[in-house]
Amino acid sequence: MLLEFFQWLAQDIRAFNVFSYITLRTMLAALTALALSFLIGPTMIRKLTAYKIGQSVRDDGPQTHLVKAGTPTMGGALILVAIMLTTLLWADLSNRYIWVVLLTTLGFGVIGWIDDYRKVVHRNPKGLSAGKKFFWQSVIAFVVVLYLAFTAELPAQIDMIVPFFKEIAVPLGMIGFIVLSYLVIVGTSNAVNLTDGLDGLAIMPTVMVGGALAIFSYVAGHVVFANYLGLPYIPNAGELSVFCGALAGAGLAFLWFNTYPAEVFMGDVGALSLGAALGVITVIIRQEVVLIIMGGVFVMEALSVMVQVASFKLTGRRVFRMAPLHHHFELKGWKENQVVVRFWIITIILVLVGLSTLKLR
């Protein structure tokens, strides 16, 4: 909305042309989302506390978590509101990719909200059943993926790019693209959700990966930079940087309230939607392998649950003391802050490795 306003002003005052630059609008989106979250956050936390929308804690988990019981949850709604409003303000709303990402994020957010609402308001510990949750995630993901598949204009938009190699791209074909993209969107959504178990653990890696994806999106949507760096040129993908900026700003503000000891938890409404957002952006700019690298913490958390479940069903034994992985380290004696900060450090390293693929080809 603001972009259109400034473009109208630029017809008479050339100085307003500066707002046509994606880089500037990305920074402004980050700052706007940050400010909005700081303004809305305290009021939302008070409302959640007043309505007694508190977190329940597993009895079989680390005993240090028992003090977290009753802490307001569903705080991810704060992130969603900030991202949505900011993106609508600063993004080019004629860009179809912006709407794809916004609607995907909102759709997964609704699934998470229903799950959280049933848990904390209806006092149903199971919330939305795993089957129903997976079904609706799959419906949204397939609709998005099919849209992207059948509106692809260039072969590069459905090929899988191999990082560190300039000329290597795996032709997936329509079916391969649909399957891989579906797995990336749904898998990332659930992986971020599984990671969201300690104060600040999930949101900071999400911010870091989202910030890196802003760079990848800008390069992918810039024909000169894309050709120079050997990346597939995806017309109009650069506008996704604005969304990523909003995500980073909203995430950093949420961390202010979510850092240890957390005043509010993200809940499924935040974790599922943010994971889906990272996944669908990655699919659009064709950087699935890079997402696996940069989101290594999310991958490890998800794999730990899969290995734990498979091992227990097949052998009756557990590989980890508790899954997801962060609880395993807690039960080994690591303090919560140690686990969180060390996972942040790992993410910083992995994001830097992912960013290095821009040049190391």
Tell me what the structure shows.
The chain has 361 residues and is mainly α. It has a domain at 23-160 and 173-286. The chain contains 14 helices and two strands. A two-stranded antiparallel ribbon has the order 1-2. Strand 1 (159-161) and strand 2 (169-171) form a beta hairpin. Helix 7 (203-220) packs parallel to helix 10 (267-285).
Secondary-structure map:
Layout: H1 2-10, H2 22-50, H3 76-90, H4 96-120, H5 130-150, E1 159-161, E2 169-171, H6 173-195, H7 203-220, H8 223-229, H9 240-258, H10 267-285, H11 288-294, H12 296-315, H13 325-331, H14 336-356
Antiparallel strand pairs: 1-2
Helix pairs in contact: 2-3, 2-9, 3-4, 3-9, 3-10, 4-5, 4-10, 5-6, 6-10, 6-12, 7-9, 7-10, 7-14, 11-12, 11-14
Global structural class: mainly alpha
Instruction: Give the number of helices.
Output: 14
- Low-confidence parts lasting 5 or more residues at pLDDT below 50? none
Query: Kindly, what is the distance between the CA atoms of the first and last residues, rounded to a whole number of angstroms?
Result: 39 Å
The shape, in one word, is: globular
User: Rounded to an integer, what's the Rg over CA atoms?
Assistant: 20 Å
Please give the share of residues in helix. 55-70%
Q: How do the strands of the widest beta sheet line up side by side?
A: 1-2
Order of helices and strands: HHHHHEEHHHHHHHHH
